[in-house]
Every structure is written in structure tokens, then in C-alpha cells.
Recover the amino acids of this structure.
């Protein structure tokens, strides 16, 4: 997959190139990263890419000509969908990550200041994506979040492809709790279901915990999710156990 990023801070993406799974993906040839600085497409000696907004108001707005030229240059290298990282966009989900990671190319547009000229959005952008209901200084960190999430979905990147299917949100549920050695730590023990080597018992415990954690923390995810008979039964068990534990702690 090829991902091109239009950004006035290309140096920030050294972290993507040099660290973690994205570095592995680049080294293995699963990811190609292109960086495009709109300042390189400015026509004045100051390489200016922003100006005051029409109508007045605080802050500056990124200008349309420089951004459009940078975007079009990026699309000449690999003609992919253009995504603008924006608080006004659709909230990013694992389903959307998988969808975007399934394409051959993607162009990410990152904004700064008060935003970018609306005419760029109207003419060049296919989709807007938000990583949450809050505001950061620019689109670079959201773009890196999206890249990190997509990289994990690319075939051949993770050492164990089963890890993808077992992660939070991959099946519409939150993740189950994880444990490793030592078996006991400061008076807390690993659940007995994980110790006996019974694979079906382990599977059922993990599924029950995933259902339960989702019910406790993100009940909205269960609202429209179809649950099998086994899942309904396991979730009922979790609720009963949680209620009993709450009664014991209040005594």
C-alpha cells in the first residue's frame, strides 16, 4: 500500500518511518510513504501557505493554490482517495480502518491553523475523518494514528495474523483482560480458567470477559450487535458474577 501525506511538518513522520510496525511494514515492502510539503508549491520567496480569513476573525487559514498543487502532485504518484483529517469528519472506527487499508493507495491531507480553504475540500477531498471529539493543533498526529491503525491490517506486517482478529473492536467487542508470568503478583492471581490448558474453557472465558467489558464500558457497542445463544448466556453469567462481587464488596 502507498500512503502520501500532505503536511507542512514532514519531519514529524520520521516516527512513522523509523519506529514500530510502520517501520517494519516499510522495510518489508508492504508500505510506501510519500511526504508532500505545500510550502514547496508556494510561489513567493517566503514559501507562504496561509493568509487571513475573508470576513475577519482570529487565526489564519491555509490557502487553496498551494494545497491543491501539493495534492495533485501526490495523486500523480499514486491515485488514491484523498482523506482530510478533521474534527468535522466521520469518527474513525476499526471497520473504516479495514476499509481504507484494503485499497492500494491513500492521500492524507493534514491541516493547521484555523483550517484550510473550503474550496480545497470541495474540489479535492473525498472524505473527512476525525479521531475523536477534541481538537489538536494540526492533522499530523491524527494522520499518524490512522497510518498506525491501517498498517496493522496489512497482510504480512504482524508476526501473527490472528492478533488482528483478537484485538479490540475487530469483532465489535472490547478486548478481554490479558495476563502473563508470574502466576501471582502482589496477592492477585491469574484466573484459573487460563491455567489448565483447556482451549474451549479459555475461549469461553475470553469471550465472556470481552462481552462483559463491553457491557461495562461501552454498552453502546452491544445495542445493535447480534449475539449468539452462547454469547447471551456468557454475558448473563458475567452480569450475575459482577452483581455478586458487588454485593460481597459492600458487606
Amino acid at each position: 500500500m502507498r500512503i502520501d501525506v500532505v503536511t507542512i511538518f514532514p519531519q514529524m513522520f520520521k516516527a512513522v518511518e523509523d519506529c514500530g510496525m510502520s517501520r517494519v511494514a516499510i522495510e518489508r515492502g508492504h508500505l510506501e510513504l510519500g511526504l508532500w510539503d505545500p510550502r514547496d508549491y508556494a510561489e513567493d520567496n517566503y514559501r507562504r501557505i496561509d493568509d487571513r480569513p475573508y470576513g475577519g476573525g482570529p487565526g489564519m487559514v491555509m490557502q487553496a493554490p498551494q494545497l491543491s498543487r501539493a495534492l495533485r502532485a501526490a495523486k500523480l504518484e499514486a491515485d488514491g482517495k484523498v482523506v482530510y483529517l478533521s474534527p468535522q469528519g466521520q469518527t474513525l472506527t476499526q471497520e473504516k480502518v479495514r476499509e481504507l487499508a484494503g485499497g492500494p493507495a491513500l492521500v492524507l491531507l493534514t491541516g493547521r491553523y484555523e483550517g484550510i480553504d473550503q474550496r480545497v475540500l470541495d474540489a479535492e477531498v473525498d472524505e473527512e475523518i476525525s479521531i475523536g471529539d477534541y481538537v489538536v493543533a494540526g492533522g499530523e498526529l491524527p494522520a499518524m494514528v490512522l497510518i498506525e491503525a491501517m498498517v496493522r491490517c496489512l497482510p504480512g506486517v504482524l508476526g501473527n495474523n490472528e492478533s488482528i482478529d483478537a484485538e479490540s473492536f475487530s469483532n465489535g467487542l472490547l478486548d478481554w483482560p490479558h495476563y502473563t508470568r508470574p502466576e501471582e503478583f502482589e496477592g492477585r492471581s491469574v484466573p484459573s480458567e487460563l491455567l489448565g490448558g483447556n482451549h474451549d474453557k479459555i475461549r469461553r472465558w475470553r469471550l465472556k470477559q470481552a462481552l462483559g467489558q463491553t457491557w461495562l464500558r461501552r454498552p453502546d457497542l452491544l445495542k445493535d450487535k447480534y449475539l449468539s445463544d452462547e454469547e447471551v448466556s456468557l454475558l448473563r453469567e458475567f452480569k450475575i458474577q459482577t452483581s455478586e462481587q458487588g454485593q460481597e464488596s459492600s458487606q
About this structure: The chain has a mean pLDDT of 93. The radius of gyration is 23 Å.
